[in-house]
Amino acid sequence: KILILDFGSQYTQLIARCIRELNVYCEIQPCLSPVVLDSSIKGIILSGSPFSVNDPQAPKVDIKELASQVPVLGICYGAQHMAQYFGGEVAKSNHREYGRAIMEHQDKEEALFYDISEKSQVWMSHADTITRLPEAFEIIAHTGSIPVAAFKCKTLTQYPIFGLQFHPEVTHSLEGKQILRNFLVHICKMSQDWTPAAFVQETIARIQQEVGDKKVVMALSGGVDSTVAAELIHKAIGSNLYCIFVDNGLLRKDEFESVLDSYKHMGLNVKGINAKDMFYGELNGVTDPETKRKIIGRLFIEVFQQEANELKDISFLGQGTIYPDVIESVSVNGPSATIKSHHNVGGLPEKMNMKLVEPLRFLFKDEVRRVGKEIGISDIFLARHPFPGPGLAIRILGEITPEKVALLQEADAIYIDGLKESGLYNQVWQAGTILLPVQSVGVMGDERTYEFTVALRAVTSTDGMTADWAHLPYEFLAKVSNDIINKVKGINRVVYDISSKPPATIEWE
Ligand code: XMP
């Protein structure tokens, strides 16, 4: 594998994705955690950083030590750190360089630049620049405005080191991916054999080894992650996997039945549990969003725990945790690492004294989908929009009642079915309907109405961290609005949410 040391750049995850798209496995690690240089590591990449190498608190690593085992590539800050480490100089640039630049290189034999045009567009984003290179370093590319766009050195360390001032991982560096490929294939001598099929095979073998003939229990949500994770575990240990799918009364219309049915078709050993009344009972009269979330989280654990206790001799808990949930990223405000820890089912592992099985722990969302496709999981699961754990509870503003849930489910089904029928469902990242706690006056036929309002929400996004409201066609919105008001008694007004995140959030609560 390739190890990426994260110095806090906004692009670190992009480096990882780019390398994995080249079918090479890599992992990200905070730059300050100790590096264990075992034989699985074939190369190291130092990321960019919001720091200047001249900041007193700038994070530093022992480059000589790293390059005593494997080739090292520094990107942006990583390259400047290398230059400074070996006695060169880095200073504020006269003009900051952001955006497109043309990199020029001449040496056709240079392995890092095999198959790269002599003049190639790259993406720069740096305020500092390397003003003096250590003597043993060799410039291998420049741009019109900076002399050192790329360098290498083969004499100061056991393995060669390379530095790139630009960002090969962003798509605006038109041949950046090929440069990274050259580093992996020609310099680190890696083969591009990390494919979904290889991942599936390795993972199944690893689960078999880890779990043996012990039993695993797992909560399913109907979402992509838990479904793919369960199917992988199922392929590994068969009927020793026990799944639980809880109806909290806050799912979409008919979702519980249809998802349970799909799971059974997949051959999963799933117990569906109807816990609606318990959830409605405890949520009765509660209006505060955070209190709703806490109640739902707690009840879920209670229901799950009770069911798991009834199954005897369970040693493992399966979870669909994915890589963005576990990556520890370097804080921008200081070299100390901030750790984002997240469990799909928060609190469960600690309480239940079970070991975790998390087959997707090192995958990004798009990789989970590719693995899902590889093992034959239906598009019903793979193409599904994200849906929050607390479900419709955070899409019913104010108090939750079974009647309001039913009202919202009807309106939401019309909206989501409409998106699917018009081919718009796959063009948005997430869509949903929100029931507002306001009633307003309308007129239907000759009758005055005084009913609820729903808001339609649809966003485009890549990770849910930021999002833009989706510019759905007016004709589509007009039809959905008309259908909802005509078909759902109790709703007489439909509005469309045109707020982006930030400053709004995707969910309303
Ligand atoms: P926000 O509202 O924070 O949502 O912009 C970002 C994404 O996270 C989902 N979301 C949740 N998912 N449990 C979940 O599993 C939750 O409590 C939760 N709250 C928000 C939301 O649907 C969106 O995709």
Topology (elements, then pairings):
Layout: E1 2-6, H1 12-21, E2 26-30, E3 43-46, H2 63-66, E4 72-75, H3 77-85, E5 89-104, E6 119-132, E7 138-141, E8 150-153, E9 161-164, H4 176-187, H5 196-211, E10 215-220, H6 224-237, E11 241-247, H7 255-265, E12 270-274, H8 276-283, H9 289-310, E13 314-318, H10 323-326, E14 329-330, E15 337-338, H11 348-352, E16 355-357, H12 365-374, H13 379-382, H14 402-421, E17 430-444, E18 447-460, E19 468-469, H15 474-487, E20 491-496
Bound molecules: xanthosine-5'-monophosphate.
Xanthosine-5'-monophosphate is lined by residues 293, 386, 388-390, 430, 464, 501, 505-507.
Function: Catalyzes the synthesis of GMP from XMP.
GO molecular function, one term: ATP binding
Catalytic activity: XMP + L-glutamine + ATP + H2O = GMP + L-glutamate + AMP + diphosphate + 2 H(+)
CATH architecture of the largest domain: 3-Layer(aba) Sandwich
Main sheet properties: 7 strands, mixed
Number of helices: 15
Low-confidence stretches: 332-345
Helix content: 25-40%
CATH class of the largest domain: Alpha Beta
The tally of beta strands, per DSSP, is 20
Overall average pLDDT: 93
Structural domain tally? 3
In whole angstroms, the N-to-C terminal distance is 41 Å
